[in-house]
Amino acid sequence: MPLKDLPLDAQPREKLLARGPAALGDAELLALLLRTGLPGQGVLQMAQELLERFGGIAGLLNATADDLKSFKGLGGTAKRAELVAVLELARRAMAQQLQQRDVFSSPGAVKHYLQLHLAAREHEVFAVLFLDAQNRLVAMEELFRGTLTQTSVYPREVVLRSLKHGAAAVVLAHNHPSGTVQPSRADEALTQTLKAALALVDVRVLDHVIVAQGEALSMAEKGLL
Which CATH superfamily hosts domain 104-218? Predict the structure, then answer.
């Protein structure tokens, strides 16, 4: 059903203006960006299928223009470019917040940021947030990529990148494509190895965050640091 044929108070645009964006579901918000559906498929249905294809908003935020091109209805450049631009703005907005204040001043902010970047990946990715002396984000880098179950991490490279960014501290992070965020013994051992290596150049390891779809675990909060 086209949006215009919905009851006025059920149309996403009018609902947003009357009740605020929080009143809309993910598919409704996405439908506002897509604007039109396909012959025989309303834009709300199209939005829902798009979310299901990419694993929700978090997965969609990790999608590239080429990823979106494979979805029926997004083959054209205009609609796809607009959607990619909005998704990139969302990522940059969260990064800007972390750059302007202590990353730990808002509980959960680091977890959310890392989930947006890593949770939907099909293979393990090891990333590092480089922080200044006030714990503000200087840069994030994905340093190593691996298989479905493991990634080889080289402490020397982490140390070199920390020095390159002039980091005073770091937050380590990686994803678990398996869906569980529980740290393995290898995760704990790697954390201690990196902590010792970085201590030699006076860089502190503040946390190691493990993310999966819909979940994130802080090893610092669990007392594993």
Answer: Cytidine Deaminase, domain 2 (3.40.140.10)
User: Where does 3-95 sit in CATH, by number?
Assistant: 1.10.150
The percent of residues above 70 in pLDDT, for the chain, comes to: 91
Domain ranges of the chain: 3-95, 104-218
Query: Is the Cβ–Cβ distance between 167 and 130 less than 8 Å?
Result: yes
- List % helix, strand, coil for the chain (3-state, nearest 5): 50, 15, 35
The two tokens of residue 70 are 């494979």
- pLDDT tens column, 31-88: 888 887 888 788 888 889 888 888 787 777 767 778 888 888 786 777 778 888 887 8
